[in-house]
Amino acid sequence: MDQRRTCIIVDDEPAAHYVLLSHIRHVPQLELVQQCYNAFEAINYLRQHPVDLMFLDINMPEISGMDLLRTLKNPPRTILTTAYSEHAMESYDFGVVDYLLKPINLPRFITATERYFEIAVKKETEKKETLTFITVKSGNANIRIELDDILYAQSLGNFIRISTPSKTHIVSLTTSELEELLPDDRFLRIHKSFIVSLNKIHEHGKDTVTVNEIRMPVGITYRQELNKRLKRESNTNGRD
Fold first, then answer.
1. Are the C-beta atoms of residues 162 and 150 closer than 8 Å to each other?
2. Longest CA–CA separation in the chain, Å
3. Helix, coil or strand: residue 66
4. Per the count of CB atoms within 10 A, which of 116, 156, 182, 196 is most buried?
5. What are the record keywords, sorted (predicted)?
């Protein structure tokens, strides 16, 4: 598994951040991209950035961790961290990966992250093996879009413009929701507003890509992964 997974910490206690940060450094497959000290900071960050895993404290002022999960329409996979055990059963109603009791020791932390990786890899494998199309809502109808036809997708707030060679579809999804639907071996988010089909890219510059004569920006945080994926695609095609 060579793909790094992004994660955030959401906890109101600086000491808890210190412990989790120390533990995360022992897991090279994890990349900490943000530290939030309340639910409002987490909500604002997640609106703009896709995240794979969230380490979430339950007992926070104003909005608790459980309330945050209820608020988010499409939350990242979550490992709960708390000093109290009374929410353990309730937490699994939200499909959390694991429930860590503070103080969190490193072996227990590693067990929780390994559980996350197992779940994530299993889901991605199933998606790659079975998915040839997606079904999305456009207006009042559900429509089927073949993956082979998708050129790119652009965010329009709470809607997405999905472009194909023959038609443009306006669908009721956010960029993060569409990203979750698409197999990540074929599609990649290159900007907070754009997802592209990797094998449809015609030109690739330092900060832009061109698909079907449409030039799109590449965000700074996405450039490294895009370069790595395009290099992988090129090596694979070369072997073929």
1. yes
2. 56
3. helix
4. 196
5. Phosphoprotein
DSSP state of 104: P
Contact indicator for 191, 216 with CB cutoff of 8 Å: yes
Q: Tell me how far apart the alpha carbons of residues 7 and 77 are, in angstroms, rounded to a whole number.
A: 9
- CATH classification code of 133-239: 2.40.50.1020
The tokens describing 192, both together, are: 């907070």
Residues 12-27 have pLDDT tens digits of 999 999 999 999 999 9
CB 212 within 8 A of CB 200: yes
Residue 113 and residue 117: Cα distance in Å, rounded? 6
Residue ranges of domains in the chain: 5-128, 133-239
Q: Which two tokens stand for residue 225?
A: 């992964």
Category of 62 on φ-ψ map: left (φ > 0), alpha (ψ -120 to 50) or beta: left
Residue 95: Cβ-neighbour burial (10 angstroms; 0-12, 13-18, 19+): exposed
CA atoms within 13 A on the CB side of 91: 23
**106: enclosing H helix or E strand:** helix 106-130
Strand partners, 155: 160
Nearest to 174 by CA among 161, 184, 183, 165: 161
What is d(CA 47, CA 50) in angstroms, rounded to the nearest whole number?
Answer: 8
Fold of 5-128: Rossmann fold (3.40.50)
Give the whole-angstrom CA distance, residue 121 versus residue 104.
Answer: 25
pLDDT digits (tens, 9 = 90+) for 44-94: 999 888 889 999 999 898 998 889 988 887 788 999 998 876 665 565 666
